[in-house]
Amino acid sequence: xxxxxxxxxxxxxxxxxxxxxxxxxxxxxxxxxxxxxxxxxxxxxxxxxxxxxxxxxxxxxxxxxxxxxxxxxxxxxxxxxxxxxxxxxxxxxxxxxxxxxxxxxxxxxxxxxxxxxxxxxxxxxxxxxxxxxxxxxxxxxxxxxxxxxxxxxxxxxxxxxxxxxxxxxxxxxxxxxxxxxxxxxxxxxxxxxxxxxxxxxxxxxxxxxxxxxxxxxxxxxxxxxxxxxxxxxxxxxxxxxxxxxxxxxxxxxxxxxxxxxxxxxxxxxxxxxxxxxxxxxxxxxxxxxxxxxxxxxxxxxxxxxxxxxxxxxxxxxxxxxxxxxxxxxxxxxxxxxxxxxxxxxxx
Length: 347
Hints:
alpha+beta
């Protein structure tokens, strides 16, 4: 038995080294594909109550780099142009500069970030109602996701994620601060159908959720617990969600070895340090010899099972692809609810 175990690990190491030599682990380099912040609203800024950081920077690119470093999903930026040195909306709202100064004197620096900081890194983007926007002709608002879509999936059952006071519910999809946007479908489905639902949705671009990090696994598992507590007192009880498919699968035809699980972008799990396998997993018995799919448990662990088993599943919404250079008007500019169409400013 000991010799069998040793042989297995020798084979595993050799397979891993072969994969590294061939570059077939498909480890993506985020530095070569930096996230792009899209201009979504001009002459407005989002509420900075839950900002990740408030800073003064010399350029939009510096603000965007800070947001990427701190994993912010959106930002406000004031370019500081002479024609945008004053907030014309504040003048029209309060009437005169003396009254404005009196109001500001009663507030702390962090209660009026627009007066002291030109870069606001935000945990989450605005939802489709843009209810958290403030008219401010000095600022523009950017998001990794571009315009929020505000859609409802057809012929399917879904639920809204809630992550406490730091979450931004976006109709039927929600924000996990500093991580991303997710949709959870409660209608059970096989792994293949779940994956197709996420990747072929007409309402958003996405895939089964990437979970190979502690923050992603912990926060999404926390939601499963909160959802199960929420439905306890309902008159029309829903089934508990103890397992949900996520984007991690072993496939004999494409995996290098029995532990070479792949995410929805075909990156190998070997590209990541984090693991959260449940006790006795990953399990690769005779019934899982060709394929083994991963679900997330409400305990925050990963559980392998037959891919034909029907389960709820979690989709991750992808960030919008860049269409122009940073700072230029692109196709993600929104002129929907509460938008400011013109905001010329002069000294």
